[in-house]
Amino acid sequence: MPGPFEIDRSPPSAELLEVAKQELRETPEVRAAAVEELRKLLKASDLNFPDDEEFLLIYLRPTKFYPESALKLMRHVAEFNKTYKDLLHNLMPADVKPVFVEHGLINIFTNRDQKGRRLMVVHMGEKWNTKEVTEDQIFRALYTIQKMAVLEPATQINGAVVIYDFKGMGMGHVKAMSTSGAKRLLTFIQEACPLRMKAVHFVNEPMIFNMVWSLFKPFVKEKLNKRMFFHGEKMAKLHEHIPKEYLPANYGGSLPALDYGGKEWYPVAEQYTDFITKWNSCGFK
Question: Ranges for the CRAL-TRIO domain (predicted)?
């Protein structure tokens, strides 16, 4: 078993493979045929992506093993990387280390939820010093975390859940956000991220959150909109989606309050620089 601050790259269990079969059409036969077909499609395309099975599964699982859909997702990723080249080109963990280690704005829970999904919290209020960390830097950190998450078969199959915590948000935080940043984040989540985003929960939103939501709302598509939930300070509403047994005391859960954060998680990213370099090579030929 991997430690609490390690990527879980263990092969899917029989139980997990059954989930993959029911939700993603994954069987040994379907998987083998889809990998072979996606390799052919890639070779005939203008895209430059690694074609080993482990890498192709990152794109085939969220697209339910339809090779044409996986290729389309790859194209979206290549277009996104091209559009935001100034921000993402050759992005390495060391480039976002301060966001993780010094500011602790993003935290991945060491436990999964009741459905085996990865849980992550993003602090957009009192923990965010807008004079030291920009909207762009937060996005670069989120993009780096994605590179880690896609390595986990369990996360590929079960997906991820994000909690946005706005506790202590003030006008300074609102002014630090932009329409372009909102569009970039939602384009990434909805079109250019090969992860199954199962739910996005907003908690501790103050009254001025309406100003923030007005930036994001125009770019939210129907599929994601159905997976967004607004709870305010009512953690009981959050518990309707994620039972208390899977949440820390910070969110009304029965687990101990969080005593770890990005500082503990950051070394994980440094362990996978070879994969990140491989990921960074993806794009157009």
Answer: 96-259
